[in-house]
Amino acid sequence: QVQLVESGGGSVQAGGSLRLSCVASGYIYSWAWFRQAPGKERQGVASIVPDGGITYADSVKGRFTISRDKAKNTLFLQMNSLKSENAAMYYCAASSYPVRTLLPHWYDYWGQGTQVTVSS
User: Fold this and answer.
1) 120 vs 112: CA distance, rounded Å
2) DSSP readout, the chain?
3) Residues with Cβ < 8 Å from 62, sequence gap 6 or more?
4) Which residues, at least 6 apart from 115, have a Cβ–Cβ distance to it below 8 Å?
5) How many angstroms separate the CA atoms of 67 and 81, rounded?
6) pLDDT tens, 62-91?
């Protein structure tokens, strides 16, 4: 059983930046970030697979960057030019499969989430 622990959330003004981190207790094949705002469905933000292939949601392209440190089993999400609509609980997710997808049902493990608040 792999455990994921996110950190880095917080409150920022619109236009600001945050960097989220997620540490895994074991080896991860595929990673992703998801977010969920109150009353809305969980939404895929970005995913990364072992060969470095990356997928972004259209709404974050050019502003968010997903990366990982394989040696440290750590995933990152650099979020720039944040908008009020980006406010949500952000979740780290991991899969035992080589999936490059933003569909949540492909991911086996989930973190507890880290809150991102964006004020205008």
Assistant:
1) 26
2) ---EEEE--EEEETT--EEEEEEESS--SEEEEEEE-TTS--EEEEEE-TT--EEE-GGGTTTEEEEEEGGGTEEEEEE-S--GGG-EEEEEEEESS------GGG--EE---EEEEEE-
3) none
4) 9, 10, 88, 89, 90
5) 18
6) 999 999 998 999 999 999 999 999 999 999
